[in-house]
TrEMBL record:
Signal sequence extent: none
The keyword Hydrolase is annotated on this UniProt entry: no
Keyword Transport: no
Pfam family, one: Pyridoxal_deC
Cofactor: pyridoxal 5'-phosphate
Protein's UniProt name: Glutamate/tyrosine decarboxylase-like PLP-dependent enzyme
Originating species: Ancylobacter vacuolatus
Family designation: Belongs to the group II decarboxylase family.
Alphabetized UniProt keyword annotations: Decarboxylase, Lyase, Pyridoxal phosphate
Length: 481
């Protein structure tokens, strides 16, 4: 007997063992939020010689767990505020286990009817919950970076088509120049997506941002008038949810101005677009629905496991033209069918629709609204608790779920950077909660992103205490107070 035709009870034992490992991991309260082992230690742990002979499945599983677990951050835990990371909700994990076990190649509706159908329905639900135009098409991609890439490919094709140029057929060489306006504090991933599409960073028209990192609408209007010739193909990239402040561009002003010049507006709303799902926060993103395309993530506020993002495009024809893959061996699609691969760059791909469908069904519209509301209130509370402490400053207006914190009070820039970095290191070392750092407007910050599905008010209180104690230790060692 070879390993490939192992009897069913072996399969059952293996998958149950994996499930038990996963359950043990998810139900144990993490003692420490940061991974015990860093990258070099993890490489050393994994770095055995390539085996000549295969190893029995249970041994492989045990070896994987032993090597991986020390290098796992508690990203699924309630006090993990690093980067902008959802919790991989158990319902999404369960759906993803089945996705892997079912092994469907979700390229098209014939190869994977159930997976394609789940995407079709999940796409409709996403448009409803985010209150975006019902005629839009949705591509299920790896994350917001690829979502922006896909949507901006559709934008590029459409604005060039309006200028009489077929970029899908003719390519970019010799095409009329496309003007791209973007806020100077747009997320790094959008600059990358533009770069993949031939819009090099130096070619972009950058619009100055205000203290919250959003585009100054007057500066936007001025750049548009000054730098974009009448009739030139135009793409405008806006943001719903700035990575540090959570702030959203003034879409009610920007979108009409861009449209009046025949432009396409793309919104990077990796997490901030979900404000639209919450009645009390939705006004922050007023006017976003007037845009032409949107990028957002499932693996942030919807809590799907990685990787999962959505490219949403109002003009479904432009979306398909930018992405469609056709070959004789691939089945044709009729008007009432939808092939997932027609909306994304990949052909073979996993069935992201299952986890999305499962989580939308599990939370429901009101559950998502309540979660977004809770996280925003918790972020506000965290900011208030921290700001009460002498020497701690919250730099952003906490309108959503992001809190940007600076330590050192009136210390000069360099000293404040050093104190902030030291406090960040102390917070990570102590381990009650996890935060990450960033440089924002020339100053180092500790950034807290409240987005994990399981975070309670108690977690917020404990985390604020831990951060304040870390700061006090740093401050007293540095004689800063
Ligand atoms: C505002 C914003 N845009 C884009 C991205 C990129 O998203 P992803 O990592 O899912 O590609 C992020 C990630 O945090 C983000 O916060």
């Amino acid at each position: 007997m070879t390993r490939d035709d192992a009897p069913d009870d072996d399969t059952e034992r293996l998958l149950l063992a994996a499930a038990h490992q996963a359950i043990a991991y998810r139900t144990a309260l993490p003692a420490h939020q940061r991974a015990e082992a860093g990258y070099a230690a993890c490489v050393a742990a994994f770095d055995d010689p390539l085996p000549e002979e295969g190893e029995a499945a249970p041994d492989v599983l045990a070896a994987l767990v032993a090597r991986a677990e020390p290098g796992l951050h508690a990203a699924t835990g309630p006090r993990f505020f690093g980067w902008v990371i959802g919790n991989s909700h158990p319902v999404g994990v369960a759906a993803d286990w089945l996705t892997a076990a079912w092994g469907q190649n979700t390229a098209n509706h014939f190869a994977a009817p159930a997976a394609a159908a789940a995407e079709t329905v999940a796409a409709r639900w996403l448009l409803e919950v985010l209150r975006l135009p019902a005629e839009s098409s949705v591509g299920f991609v790896t994350g917001a970076t690829m979502a922006s890439f896909v949507a901006l490919a559709a934008a590029r094709g459409e604005v060039l088509a309006r200028a009489g140029w077929d970029v899908e057929a003719q390519g970019l060489f010799g095409a009329p120049p496309v003007r791209v306006l973007i806020g100077e504090e747009a997320h790094a991933s959008v600059f990358s997506a533009l770069q993949y599409l031939g819009f090099g960073k130096a070619s972009l028209i950058r619009v100055p941002a205000d203290a919250q990192g959003v585009m100054e609408p007057d500066a936007f209007a001025e750049r548009l008038a000054r730098d974009v010739p009448e009739g030139a193909p135009l793409i405008v990239v806006t943001q719903a949810g700035h990575i540090h402040s959570g702030a959203t561009d003034a879409h009610e002003r920007i979108v009409p101005l861009a449209h009046a010049r025949g432009g396409w507006v793309h919104v990077d709303g990796a997490f901030g677009l979900w404000a639209r799902a919450c009645p009390t926060r939705a006004p922050l993103a007023n006017g976003v629905e007037g845009a032409d395309s949107w990028a957002t993530d499932g693996h942030k506020w919807l809590q799907t496991p990685f990787d999962c993002g959505y490219a949403i495009v109002r003009n479904a024809g432009a979306h398909r033209r930018a992405m469609t893959i056709a070959a004789s061996y691939l089945p044709p699609v009729s008007e009432h069918e939808r092939d997932p691969s027609h909306y994304v760059p990949e052909l073979s791909r996993r069935a992201r629709g299952f986890a999305t469908w499962a989580l939308l069904r599990h939370f429901g519209r009101t559950g998502i609204a309540a979660m977004v509301e809770r996280h925003c209130a918790q972020a506000r509370r965290l900011a208030d608790l921290l700001a009460q402490e002498p020497g701690v400053m919250v730099l952003n207006e906490v309108v959503l779920n992001q809190v940007a914190v600076r330590f050192g009070g009136a210390a000069d820039e360099g000293a404040g950077d050093a104190l902030t970095r030291a406090t960040l290191a102390a917070v990570q070392e102590e381990g009650t909660c996890f935060a990450a750092g960033a440089s924002w407007r020339g100053r180092w910050i500790l950034r807290l992103s409240v987005i994990g599905g399981s975070t309670t008010d108690d977690d917020i209180r404990l985390s604020a205490q831990a951060i304040i104690h870390a700061w006090r230790r740093v401050a007293s060692a540095a004689g800063a107070l």
